[in-house]
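Input structure tokens:
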């Protein structure tokens, strides 16, 4: 039990050292993730469509 308590104390000390991002940085990162996900989805959908069309031409 002592090891668990010591571990939790060390975790708490390390979390005090963490520099959390500000609101603006979080919003900017979120926008980047949303846009890049949308772009990737469109590209993947286009590739899928082209592959299906190619397979339909073969069979």
């Amino acid at each position: 039990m002592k090891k668990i308590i010591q571990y939790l104390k060390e975790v708490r000390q390390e979390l005090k050292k963490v520099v959390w991002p500000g609101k603006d940085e979080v919003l900017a990162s979120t926008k980047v993730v949303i846009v890049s996900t949308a772009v990737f989805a469109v590209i993947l959908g286009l590739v899928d469509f082209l592959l299906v069309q190619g397979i339909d031409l073969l069979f």
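The CA atoms of residues 50 and 56 lie 10 Å apart. Helices lie at 2-16, 23-58.
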